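Suppose you are handed a protein chain with no further information: no name, no annotation, nothing but its sequence. What can you learn? This example shows the usual starting point.
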Amino acid sequence: MTKYRVFLIVVILCATLSPQPAKALLSLPLAHLQIVANVPGPEQQLSFHVAVPDSSAPLKDFAIQTDKLTGHYDINLEAWPSDYILSQDLPPGITVSDFSCQTTGNSAITPVGDTVSFHLVAGDNITCTYNYQANIGKHPVLIIPGVGATELAEGPDLLWLNLPRIVLPLASDIFLAVLGFKPDLSPLNSDIEVRDVIRRKQIAGTSIDLYNYTDGLIKAFENQGYKDGQDLFLFPYDWRFGVSADNIQKLKSLISAISARNNDLSVDVVAHSTGGLLLKEYARANTSKPNIRRAVMVGVPHLGAPKALKMLLQGDNFGVPGLDEHIMQNVAHNMPVVYELAPTIGYYINQGWFYQVSNKNLDYIQTRNRLLTDKQLNAVAWQRAENLHTKESDNFDLRTAGIDAYNIVGCGSGTLGRIIEKRQSVVVGSIPAGYKVEYVSGDGTVPMTSAASTPTDAQKIYYNPKVKHGTMMTDSTVSREITEIIATDKFESSATSTKDCALNGHTLSIFSPLTIMATDSLGNKAGMTPEGDSYNDIPGSEFMTMGDHKFLYLPDDGANYNIALTGTGEGTFTLLDELIQDNKIADSKYYYNVPVTSQWSGQLILGANEAIKFQNKKGSEATIRPEQQRAEEAEKDSIIPIPTSIQNSSIGSGEWFLDSVKRFLGRARDIIITKISRK
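A reasonable first move is to predict its three-dimensional structure. Written in structure tokens, the prediction is:
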């Protein structure tokens, strides 16, 4: 055997056992591949990848930079192995209109979607030509989030929303104090930085969601073919400043940049909560060319929400486990956005009243004066909010700016609608004795009447029962509505009726050292544990505290509730059960001055045989029945009125100016004649 034959056998064996050494020993034949790209304009940089089948990484990455709308790239590929895959990453705004590949030899070429598979034959020359066109069928989407939905940081330290730090049982939330404002509405710390819009927050090391804000909606858009960062965007902003000139300008710049990246196509916008107020002011300032094709408003408080007043008066935890309400009250005291979300003059006109003191329903001016004087709220922030919520602004019609407007409203959940301040008589005057609340239909944060109060075609407003405000955009029904509205020109929905929006259930008010926890048949909870952890997991329910008082709305939709009562201190408790039917109080039952200790526990039984059952000191079961006489007295002062009004008014430029507004609240003694003037 000659030396040549021995060498050839060694090479073949090497190739069989390990192809790489064989390639080093032999100079293998090549095939030549040229890619030609033709774009419609502007100039593009196109990214391509060449890979070997079943390989975990590309063999070669390269880019074609077009010049005069064309470009090419040449690459030699070894015919060992002879199988390759060519793929590319499309930049936003263009798609492949057609492509073809030609070979001078016998190489096999197989298009598979947007990729091409090659089985190369040595010595072949292959030319693949890609022709691109502008993607004019899909408008880019921008999601504008609401309050608390953008992360805020101080240098490397995440402040909001730092859930691991907030939920630690022994940790203080005082680190959030730097997010507050001075009385002149300037920030306490000017170094707060905006980070990303919150998508979801999970318990560390698990897949359990603590908070899912936009992740579900983003995935729904991705299922429709949208790509994050290409034709799907989010607007992070410092929500503490609310509808400020700076935030409006940043929104304008982002919309312009998104449109420019997508062949000057107008943008489709999804705006949640405060994001909707920001959207309206942006559109109002840019009516000639807003660069927006379609807008979907989701849970927007067009007329404000009393829950913002609760934040200012008592604090609120935003539904975040472990968040200290009192610290948040201090943070919110001078924060512009909280005042922008408070009930407006329009809310008062719509609802009749939203603040009561000692059984007297205050008109808007009386409410404002009391909150600014007695509760010492920030007058500068209140005036700034009134300057935003003019009649012109609150009633601004997006359609006048050429925007196709849709409105998604949450309803059927207990939502804070009115606040009642209780006073206790003393020798001279009276002193505060806590608060009571009245629930109305809404999404748990924004009343339905506020969210629905914007000019929209009747067939383009959708009511979604028992969705929660903070997670509306990730609710499966709502996210489907949003994506189909955006992606479909003829979207139709059966959710245009309010028939399932009325409140029907029980409002349970507790004035005492007592906690309440309701559990439905599925294990969902609503209420508070003796340790102070609150739950709102039952669909349509709403639990909140105002000082030491607790308020729980439970929907009556056939569910059987186990309602546990637990004493948290020494004294007595009073419990009021108001039966709500079609948004009205139909019956009231009172449990008055029941003795309680920190060891006391019992169960509330609702229904025809309503009672509280507990173990007495002797260890046997005892029963407390409600006081009917007191219930009748309570009912007289608790019925939710249905307001009607007669208004004679003149309206100044962009301002509310109302004269002689007569409101009839459903009972003969409740006739309020008020004058409101504001210029």
